[in-house]
Design brief:
The complex is a heterodimer of chains A (about 240) and B (about 425). With about 240 residues, chain A is an alpha+beta fold. Chain A has four helices and twelve strands, in the order ααααββββββββββββ. In chain A, about 20% of the residues lie in helices and about 35% in strands. The longest helix of chain A is centred in the first third of the chain and has 22 residues. Chain A is flat, with a radius of gyration of 26 Å. Chain B folds into two domains: about 300 residues, no CATH class; about 120 residues, no CATH class. Chain B is globular, with a radius of gyration of 22 Å. In chain B, about 45% of the residues are buried. The chains are: A alpha+beta (about 240), B mainly alpha (about 425).
Chain lengths: ~240, ~425
């Protein structure tokens, strides 16, 4: 092939491949975003202002309060780690009195739905302190339960149980009747993407719509001084 | 608009830092027996510079002092060789233009997507902040994952600090530079015209690029270091037997050093690369000795620094005592799980989908020798390593494989590009005949 034609064809192909790359990565739109949105707006869009990582809220707090210490950060969102990187300063001391609570759920509630042999929930118990109450959504007015109540997760990919709670439960329960748990302490390992199961032996699952368990939050917002809040989901407290 | 200006000046800053020595250092210092391209020289400068930064980090040299020192070195070189600074003699290097263009394009993607990967949020960013905020290496012991190396984070902090000292993602543009330079430098293995090398490079970028590899994770640095190693190995194999160029041995040792300090698995990859190279290429005795002694020094330095800073491997990661107890059903379960996910992630990685069948074809057609042997030995060792790594984890093997195996597979994928190179070069040779 003529060298010049070969060169022109190569240039054409290079231009074509580059354009495909630009198109695939949607780069024109991204240039537009960079020009028209600030860094803070863009990071809030991808990491959430007061959702997901809540980087937007953390940077907002950093600007507003100009911290001279590192507050503790607790993110209740299960799919992201609790990370204080947007406000962290190595030269400052950590202060455990000042806390930032992200994606704060207020009351932590687990709703267990029936499956073949037990009940399951996809809810998370991040920063739960103890099992507080249980109530049953029944298809009948009441039912008698005389069994062990076991709450557990499973090691990923195996059937090995990690017990969260296991005590006898002998009661006549009425529909939506709130029943208090005896004193207990939640000891939970990493819960990343783990389903929580609830087992009650020898009882008729077909009479139950679901079971709800209320968990006491490690941080009760009513007992803390609120220094800043956003949307009743993100708090700066001490 | 100001951020676009920052991005462009950041790229220019990086390119100037690595290009200037190419003009100022005499040709003979790069290698005696091989004529390097401009891109190759950039890569060598990069390896040299990263090694300097590594030693600066362990001796707690401040970031601005490193920059001043480097500028001072450039000024000295300019004074020694004033005739070398002749811009009228500079020719357009199309591969360099490609490098600039794609750094810019990928930087736009990074500046828009910004988000961090999981490990970045819990580990890498804190190491980066440590250096960025002027703290010493000893201070790293207060963070999680103290056993993870710090070199990638140190590089990030350096280019975050200079020249603008504003947005963190500007520091990550340096990772883009390393990634692209490794691919473009590797394309020089092809014995074709420059435009065809550019096409090949763009195809490799399209095959391997995703924002996730620049989300602050360090796997892309391992990928690039292995690609640099592959490029130098190719040059060595291309020279046939009894090659004895000390400069190339020094470059290989430099790559091994940075591999060891990007991530812990880099130590194993270094050993595998070294073993595969030494067993498949007939080095002269002195070269072999230099290579082995140099690498031994690097591994000993790694162990020494590990002990010096009282670092311990995270005990929750490996559960040796339980693994050694030999529960046969559990071993079988783990083997099954790892094999299943290896197959899944290999088929999701286009590099393996293309290169592994080609490797099988090459072995079938030409038998295992030289470069093919080098790739094959590395492949075998790499897969043994993957199996053993996940086997030593007693519980949650599936979670671990799901979270990390695609990244582990990506890290070493660059070396298998060599198969494509062998295939294309052989094809061109046949075509010319």
């Amino acid at each position: 092939m003529n060298k010049k034609i070969k060169k022109n064809l190569s240039i054409l192909l290079i231009s074509f491949l580059t354009l495909i790359f630009i198109y695939n990565q949607n780069l024109f739109r991204k240039v537009y975003n960079i020009i028209n949105l600030t860094y803070e707006d863009r990071i809030s869009q991808v990491s959430g202002f007061c959702s997901k990582d809540s980087v937007g809220y953390l940077t907002y707090l950093k600007k507003k309060f100009n911290f001279n210490f590192n507050p503790e950060v607790y993110n209740y969102e299960d799919s992201v780690p609790s990370s204080n990187w947007p406000i962290y300063d190595n030269s400052l001391k950590n202060d455990s009195k000042h806390k930032i609570l992200l994606n704060y759920p207020g009351q932590i509630e687990l709703v267990f739905y029936p499956q073949e042999n037990n009940f399951y929930t996809k809810n998370t118990i991040n920063y739960g302190e103890e099992l507080s109450e249980i109530y049953f959504d029944l298809k009948v007015s009441s039912m008698n339960i005389n069994s062990n109540l076991t709450i557990y997760t499973k090691s990923y990919g195996t059937n090995k149980k990690e017990i969260i709670y296991n005590k006898p439960f002998n009661k006549l329960v009425k529909n939506h009747q709130r029943i208090k748990f005896p004193h207990n302490t939640l000891k939970v390992k990493s819960m990343i993407n783990k389903t929580i199961f609830l087992d009650i032996a020898n009882f008729e699952k077909n009479k139950i719509n679901n079971i709800k368990i209320v968990i006491k939050n490690k941080f009760d917002i009513n007992e803390l001084e609120i220094l800043d809040s956003y949307n009743r989901q993100c708090y700066y407290v001490k | 608009m100001i951020e676009i200006f920052y991005i462009i000046t950041q790229i220019l800053f990086i390119l100037v830092i690595f290009s200037l020595p190419v003009f100022l250092v005499d040709e003979k210092y790069y290698a005696k027996s091989i004529k390097f391209t401009f891109i190759d020289k950039l890569s060598i400068n990069l390896i040299f510079f990263i090694n300097i930064l590594f030693f600066a980090s362990i001796f707690n040299v401040k970031l601005n002092l490193i920059l001043y020192g480097y500028c001072f070195l450039i000024i000295i070189l300019s004074c020694i060789n004033p005739k070398k600074i002749n811009f009228s003699k500079i020719k357009i290097d199309y591969l360099f233009l490609l490098l600039f263009l794609f750094i810019f394009l990928i930087s736009i993607d990074i500046a828009d997507q910004i988000y961090f990967g999981w490990d970045t949020k819990t580990n890498w960013i804190f190491k980066t902040l440590n250096f960025y905020q002027g703290q010493k290496i000893e201070n790293l012991s207060q963070f999680n994952f103290t056993d993870y190396p710090h070199l990638g984070s140190f590089l990030w902090s350096f280019f975050w600090k200079f020249p603008h000292d504003t947005y963190e993602y500007l520091g990550r543009i340096f990772f883009v530079f390393i990634y692209l330079l490794s691919i473009i430098s590797f394309s020089n293995c092809l014995k074709v015209e420059v435009f065809e090398k550019i096409i090949f490079s763009i195809l490799l970028i399209s095959l391997t690029y995703s924002y996730a590899i620049f989300s602050g994770l360090q796997d892309v640095l391992i990928f690039s270091a292995i690609l640099f190693f592959a490029r130098i190995s190719y040059l060595i194999f291309d020279k046939k037997n009894n090659f004895g160029d000390f400069a190339l041995i020094l470059i290989l040792i430099g790559i091994i050093n940075i591999l060891c300090w990007f991530k812990n698995e880099g130590v194993f990859y270094s050993l595998f690369l070294l073993f595969s190279l030494l067993t498949t290429y007939k080095f002269s005795k002195s070269c072999k000795l230099y290579l082995i002694l140099g690498s031994a020094f690097i591994f000993l330095l790694r162990i020494f620094l590990f002990n010096h800073y009282n670092l311990e491997l995270n005990p929750s990661y490996f559960e040796m005592d339980k693994t050694i107890s030999l529960d046969f059903s559990l071993i079988l379960y783990k083997l099954k799980t790892i094999t299943f996910y290896i197959i899944i992630y290999l088929t999701q990685n286009p590099v393996y989908v293309i290169s592994l069948p080609l490797l099988v074809y090459l072995i079938y057609k030409y038998s295992v020798k030289n470069l093919t042997g080098f790739i094959l030995y590395f492949l075998i060792l790499n897969f043994i390593f993957i199996y053993l790594t996940y086997m030593f984890k007693m519980t949650e093997v599936e979670l671990l494989t799901k979270a990390s195996m695609s990244r582990v597979i990506f890290q070493t994928s660059g070396l298998y590009f060599l198969v494509i190179i062998i295939y294309i070069n052989n094809y061109i040779k046949l075509f010319k005949k």
